[in-house]
Design a protein that fits this description.
The protein is α/β, with parallel strands linked by helices. It has 12 helices and 22 strands. The strands form 3 sheets. Strands 11, 12, 13, 14, 15, 16, 17, 18, 19, 20, 21 and 22 form a 12-stranded mixed beta sheet that branches. Helix 9 packs across helix 10 and helix 10 runs parallel beside helix 11.
């Protein structure tokens, strides 16, 4: 009987998305934890495993060690000192053969920066990001890796504190230059109709894990009564929960609480009127201006893109609604809030008349086959944003590039749905689209390619469904990690 065809495995590629160079110093190969409990694998276990198995600290005399414990005590069967330097923001294609999944082998990589060593085992026990293990007490650096075994590709990020990642960036940075993770219909995490629920976790949890853009749809509760501040949270004509109405003011209070605890941060909020009522945009604008965006220390409603210093500890309003006549006169007739009142419906690429917002919002994925088209549009929008070079007042920049002389906010919606197709509900689409964007960001985003213009590598605002599902924040971490080149330009190596 003929054997299975041999699939060629590409040598390991390492991408360093941090602001300092790092050097690969040591390669070790050993039997993977998954195979150690097999008859063959036992031969690779040192005598330390025996003592570990019988350790008094074990909760049960018969309980086997964890995979992590096994990996810690396994014997390497090859050991090779190497010296492969990966410069800051650089990619290196090595001649290192990755671990073969079929052989149950683990390749351990030991990196060094400034005399300190950090270790990573590949392939990882899960496909989620993995924090490198420091081998030095009180390390000066923290690294997170995402390994894509099907491409033998390893990406290294600085382990940003996702709860306060904006503190690493300077005040004069315009928010349009940032890579910002966002969520679509952000509060829609309750039990609801299949195409209504868009998120896995609460807005509070989203904020704590790095999300800084909220997409909010509201319906005025009593539009004829200007003294009433009630705004229902909705998705299209539906309430976001089957268990009763949820209110905008509760969400705003959660945001205030987060920003008070993390004053380096901002939350960019897109607001739109939806729902089944007979309210008007003008009524919504009055409710917001009279009852919510009253305190200028809490809200940024100037009709232009702010710097991060102007936006810290505030909600930055992007309005997708028209204004009451009185608000049109604000700011010497420029209006109120960043104007995103109109963009083409179901668009793969459009720019609002204000020039402040460039958007990809193709959402009618009527068949599962159209998910690939959605991915293509999202990647094209990532490329548009990545090509921009932000003009920083404190940095001597030659040839700063933006759209029509200024850098707009690039909004990139990864959301899409079709109520009538189970495979096209938001959760199902996100399960395919989110990993595809992680892959693209790690391997291709802002990398030299035929016809691709290379800039700061900003992703713009990437608006996601179902991030944080089962604790998976890889997409958010990748987006935040793309601020590395901007940080490098601002702060140097």
């Amino acid at each position: 009987m003929s054997g299975l065809p041999v699939i060629a495995i590409e040598p390991l590629t390492i991408r360093n998305l941090t602001s300092t160079p790092i050097e690969l110093k040591l390669l070790e190969r050993f039997q993977a934890a998954a195979a150690i409990d097999s008859a063959v694998g036992i031969s690779y276990i040192t005598k330390n495993i025996t003592s570990l198995w019988r350790s008094p600290a074990s909760t049960s005399s018969s309980a086997p060690p964890t995979p992590t414990q096994l990996a810690e005590h396994a014997d390497a069967f090859t050991h090779e000192n190497v010296s492969i330097r990966i410069d800051a923001l650089a990619t290196v294609k090595t001649d290192i053969q990755p671990a073969k999944l079929s052989s149950r082998e683990t390749l351990r990589l030991t990196f060094e920066n400034n005399g300190e060593r950090y270790r990573l085992d590949t392939p990882c026990l899960t496909y989620k990001s993995t924090v490198l293990t420091p081998l030095t007490p009180n390390p000066h650096f923290n690294y997170t890796a995402i390994y894509l075994p099907e491409y033998s590709h390893l990406t290294l990020f600085s382990s940003a504190n996702l709860q306060a990642w904006m503190r690493e960036l300077k005040d004069e940075t315009p928010i349009s230059a940032l890579s910002i993770p966002g969520t679509h219909n952000s509060p829609a995490y309750y039990r609801a109709l299949p195409s209504v629920r868009c998120q896995a976790v609460s807005p509070q949890t989203q904020l704590e894990n790095g999300v800084r853009f909220f997409d909010i749809r509201v319906q005025p509760e009593s539009p004829q009564d200007p003294s009433h501040n009630g705004l229902f949270l909705v998705h299209s004509v539906f309430p976001i929960a089957l268990t009763g109405g949820k209110y905008f003011h509760d969400l705003v209070n959660h945001i205030y609480d987060f920003l008070d605890k993390n004053p380096s941060e901002t939350v960019v909020m897109s607001l739109k009127r939806e729902g089944a009522g007979n309210s008007t945009d003008a009524q919504l604008s009055r409710i917001l201006s009279d009852h919510y965006a009253v305190d200028t220390n809490r809200w940024y409603t100037t009709p232009r893109i702010p710097t991060l210093g102007e936006a810290r500890r505030k909600i930055v309003l992007i309005r997708r609604f028209g204004l009451d006549e009185s608000l049109k006169k604000e700011w010497n007739g420029a209006g109120w809030g960043i104007n995103a009142e109109t963009w083409a419906d179901n668009t793969p690429h459009d720019t609002c008349p204000s020039g402040d917002i460039c958007v990809q919002d193709f959402y009618e994925v009527l068949e599962t086959e159209n998910i690939d088209k959605k991915i293509e549009y999202a990647e094209a929008q990532l490329d548009r944003s990545a090509a921009c070079v932000c003009a920083l007042p404190s940095v001597d920049v030659q040839g700063a590039r933006g759209a029509s002389g200024k850098q707009p906010i690039y909004l990139n919606f990864l959301s899409a749905s079709n109520f009538w197709k189970v495979g096209c509900w938001p959760e199902r689409i996100a399960a395919k689209l989110n990993p595809a964007i992680v892959d693209y960001l790690c391997r291709k985003h802002n990398e030299p390619d035929a016809g691709k213009q290379i800039g700061d590598g900003s992703t713009g605002i990437v608006v996601c469904d179902w991030v944080g599902n089962n604790g998976d924040w890889d997409l958010v971490r990748c987006i935040v990690g793309m601020n590395a080149k901007l940080e490098f330009r601002e702060n140097g190596p």
